[in-house]
Specification:
The protein is built from three helices and no strands.
């Protein structure tokens, strides 16, 4: 069933208020690897990439704090 114009407007409004979009480029073939890994984890490609970014930031912050306060 196709979405209504009202649904499309609601989606656009939500995305404008709540979502930042980031385009990434990866080496040829990596998209398939990402998709396969995400599927193994039961996640969408977007959720997997978002989780990977969050985990990397947390790890980097923790590493920096350990260096500062050793």
């Amino acid at each position: 069933m196709a979405r209504t114009e009202a649904e499309d407007r609601a989606i656009r409004k939500y995305e404008a208020e709540k979502i930042d979009k980031i385009m990434i480029r990866v080496p040829k073939g990596m998209r398939a690897q990402v998709d396969a890994h995400a599927k193994q984890q039961g996640e969408s490609r977007n959720r997997f990439i978002t989780r990977a970014i969050i985990e990397a930031i947390e790890r980097d912050v923790k590493g920096r704090e350990e260096k500062e306060y050793g």
